[in-house]
Amino acid sequence: MATENFFINTNADTLGAARVISLTNSTQEPIKKFVAGDLRDLNLYFVYGAGAYIDVGLYTVRAGIGGINKRPTGGTWTFTHGGNDSGLAFDAPASTVEAVLDASPFSLAVSVTSPTTGIYIVKFDAVGAQTLPTSDSSALTPDSSVSVKRLVTGDGTTKEEWIIRLFETPWAYSESWSNITNGKTGTLNFGTKNLYKAFASANSLAGYFEIELTDSGGNVSTVIQAPTTILGPVIGDGVSGVGSFATYITETYETIIASVTGEDGNASTGTGKVTFRMPYAMTLTDVRASVKTAPTGATIICDLNEDGVTVLSTKVSIDAGETTSTTAATPPVISDTALADDSEITIDVDQVGSSTAGVGLKVCLIGKRA
């Protein structure tokens, strides 16, 4: 898809009417619908009324859909600088952030102000270039991000300034916008995890397209907040009789196969015949068992445990004369579908064939990464 030009009138009567047709035509232009999965390349031009561009070369730009200015409501984030870390609360006041940054081991000698909760302006007391810190937002709730940008780059005569922002992760978002003639250019990704989570069983999402400008003095202004719609892929918009959006999402299933015996080994009863740890969190959707040589005289019955507790209210079985549990008269029933990352999984064999035990027993876990 070709790059789309956005002209934003910073003098519009309302933020919802700020997108206009062109530099010289200040008639409102609605935001086109977006489609989940798209990468949309945008050129952003900021105008004042009709006929004059605003020079945004020294501004930082944040743009997105799904609430770019929602703040985390709980948890902590980590500030890292010079190999040292410090945890800070989601709502830490500027005085606390300043005290942490000024104290050992950071000893940055800064003053910190906070124009609103979750935004910090950090000004250095001395001239000179500074190394930007890094951050970790994984402990913030709900899913959130921390952004650190330079407002002023320090040098031999200039004191450096940073802006630190905490914000809930939007559906689609970017703060990486490059200068072009009279504007900025960048890309919005409509294939994010948060967007698909927001869709759930809906066919479309209604939200606001927002752009925020920050000047070199740390002054922040929202210049557009216009309604738009994000459509689910494949089904389009307003198609009569289609299923929910979630029906059309391709889901990837993971499979873990555990060999309970050697390929030519006879099955035998016992607890903890196999022990391993989950390599990731999984939503368990099916459990199967198979053998190379079928049992005779009795069924094979296996149990699956997480940290010593069964996850099957009806255990997985292979009927006599069969080589797979998929044909069992009594299918397994999963009582606990949530397998945690690094939890200990054990497989018990409660029963084997009475005449022929069964050879080459394997148990298969099928599910989706959680």
Task: Explain how this protein is built.
- This protein has three domains: 1-63 and 171-249, Sandwich (Immunoglobulin-like); 71-169, no CATH class; 254-369, Jelly Rolls.
- 4% of the residues lie in helices and 47% in strands.
- A hairpin with a 2-residue loop joins strand 15 and strand 16.
- The longest helix has 9 residues, at 94-102.
- It has a five-stranded mixed sheet with strand order 2-1-4-16-15, with no helix packed on it. The chain has a five-stranded mixed sheet with strand order 3-18-17-5-14. Strands 20, 22, 23, 25 and 28 form a five-stranded antiparallel sheet that branches.
- It is built from two helices and 29 strands.
- Mean pLDDT is 89; it is low at 235-248.
- With 370 residues, it is mostly beta strands.
Describe the sheet with the most strands.
Answer: 5 strands, mixed
Binned, the helix content reads under 10%
Major sheet strand order = 2-1-4-16-15
Number of strands: 29
**Continuous helix count:** 2
CATH architecture of the largest domain: Sandwich
Just give the CATH class of the largest domain: Mainly Beta
Low-confidence stretches: 235-248
The end-to-end distance, rounded to whole angstroms, is 33 Å
CATH topology of the largest domain: Immunoglobulin-like
**Radius of gyration (Å):** 29 Å
Secondary-structure-based class equals mainly beta
The oligomeric status of these chains comes to: single chain
Domain tally: 3
Mean pLDDT: 89
| Beta-strand residue fraction | over 45%
Gross morphology is elongated
